[in-house]
Design a protein that fits this description.
- By secondary structure, the protein is an alpha+beta fold.
- The chain is built from five helices and four strands, in the order αααβαβββα.
- The protein has a four-stranded mixed β-sheet with strand order 2-1-3-4.
- It is elongated and about 75 Å long.
- The relative contact order is 0.11.
- The model has no long low-confidence stretch (mean pLDDT 88).
Length: 129
């Protein structure tokens, strides 16, 4: 039995099923493991499931790139406008001296470049075209 596949299936079920459905699913799964005499895979299955959960949490992380970490409070209100897009509770701050001002917010799906450098470049393009 492939414990990695089982871990993915259990994680997916935990995301899609109600609590009652998940309890029935897990009871059936454990019964199957007992029947097949594969209960010994449970520690590996548990560890793999932990890895999947940690990876999912990292993928939901919002990375905020700023010139200085102390500027985060300055842009908190602006970030709230994008609350549906960027996870405000799981934020990692990266310092980048090349940013003139503003910020860049990134997660697994989206990038919001709200830096002054980008705005200045867009202004430059308008003036020169």
């Amino acid at each position: 039995m492939n414990y990695k596949k089982y871990a993915k299936i259990i994680f997916q079920a935990s995301q899609e099923k109600t609590e009652g459905e998940l309890n029935i699913f897990m009871q059936n799964f454990f019964s199957l493991l007992k029947e097949k005499k594969e209960v010994k895979i449970l520690p590996k299955l548990y560890n793999e499931l932990e890895k999947i959960i940690q990876e999912e949490e990292r993928s939901n992380q919002t990375i905020i790139i700023l010139k200085n970490e102390n500027l985060l409070n300055t842009y908190k209100e602006e970030l709230k406008k994008f609350d549906n897009t960027f996870n405000q509770e799981n934020i990692k701050i990266q310092k980048n001296e090349n940013i003139i001002g503003g910020f860049i917010a990134k997660n697994k799906k989206y990038t919001l470049n709200n830096s002054y450098r980008k705005k200045l470049f867009e202004l430059y393009q308008k003036i020169t075209s």
